[in-house]
Specification:
This protein is mainly alpha-helical. Helices cover 88% and strands 0% of the residues. It has a domain at 38-109: F1F0 ATP synthase subunit C (F1FO ATP Synthase). It is elongated, with a radius of gyration of 18 Å.
Length: 109
């Protein structure tokens, strides 16, 4: 199972990199005027995929880290504040994905 999870993670990283690279354009005003409907749809799909992948990744990370943090806090209550920091770092993935999706949506408008 670890090998398939590694392949999935590699695919997701490559997909996110490709969507960001495809969305990077210069001259946004000129590009918006000359953009075809297919390119607009591609940008919308890129924004959707970026948001979905980052939220799913953050959810998986928070699930694993949160359960380990509560298990550690049950044995040693002093570790609770440190473990909340790791949960917050995992949530940062979703926030960054949201920011990238907003940037992609701004390219559409």
């Amino acid at each position: 199972m670890k090998m398939s999870l590694r392949r999935v993670c590699t695919f997701l990283v490559l997909a996110m990199t490709a969507t960001v690279a495809a969305a990077a354009e210069t001259g946004a005003a000129e590009a918006a005027a000359s953009r075809s409907p297919a390119e607009t749809i591609a940008l919308a799909i890129a924004a959707c995929l970026t948001m979905a992948i980052s939220v799913l990744g953050a959810g998986a990370a928070v699930g694993r880290i949160g359960s380990a943090a509560l298990g550690a806090a049950a044995e040693k209550p002093d570790l609770l504040t440190r473990s909340i920091l790791f949960v917050a770092l995992a949530e940062g993935l979703a926030v960054l994905g949201f920011a990238i999706a907003i940037m992609l949506v701004q390219k559409i408008i």
